[in-house]
Sequence to fold (343 residues):
Amino acid sequence: MYVRILLIGFGGTIAMARNDEGALVPARSAEELVDQAPGLKKLGAELDVLQLLNEDSTDITPEDWQMLIAKIYELHNKYNGVIVAHGTDTMAYTATATALAFGKSLNIPIVFTGSQQTMDEAGTDARVNLERSMKVMVESVNSGVTETMVVFSTHVMRAVRTIKTSESRFDAFDSPGFPHIADLTASTTVFSPITMKKHQQTTMKPPLNVFDTGIVGIEAKPGLLPENIRVLAQSKSCTALLIKSLGAGNVPAKKAKYSLIPVIEELVSLGKPVILATKFVGGRTNPEIYLPGRAALKAGAGHAGNMTDVAAEVKLMWLLGQGIRDPKAVSEAMLKSYIGEVD
Fold:
């Protein structure tokens, strides 16, 4: 089968080099990455290259997500799949946003990858991750896979289930609450039965490509003063509050000085959704187990189930961007699976 792949350069360590002061800065184009990864051309696909952005991923914004998603949609009929070379710090956010925007109408595979080292460092993972991403991409096309994925080290993961787990390890990404969707070995890529594949859908719908940037995210902790949250959450620019809860959806609720319950009630009365997420890797919110969680639910909060904190935040931005703003409607939509992000 003839396979034509587009590699989009989006910046990150994989496209960096050291400046005169020894700091890593964006320096390489996507074309240079291909030149330095000769194995890309030996994997049975024609490869085109597009440099769309070259940023440290710390500076990536939702507007950049929109640009990337729009470009993939614009070009998707010309290619069998798209690989995005991205910085690691925010790759899970961009990949999750991309998956949600396309939803189940996606009819090509999209792979996000990056590296912990630059292309010119000894023993670099940049070349390995690029070449493995192409290997996974070719097998995805041949197998009819239509997932948005993160490929890093030997891991092939559903994008909306992926988080960065290390700032330095070569296996820096994982999906702790969800199985990997493929086993990547020296000889082949074997996809799991849970992997999304193309069926009768042949026309990709325009992406739902709007993200609300008014979300305020905070982490519940002992001694957190509700007044500090109130100042942020009641500002005109705040549209919703995401609380990374203690335990399975619990927030301080008993002692008046520290109780978050009045703040939740106030925000919900203002039409601003409040969502409880878990800050634990592979965890799940279940606020009905304990009284503090029940109090938060009674005050009008919703919760994020077993979504990662990344997926919970991006999904909340996406839902509000689609015009779902009523707190109760948002709470219900957070627990609805749009693209396999929650179960």
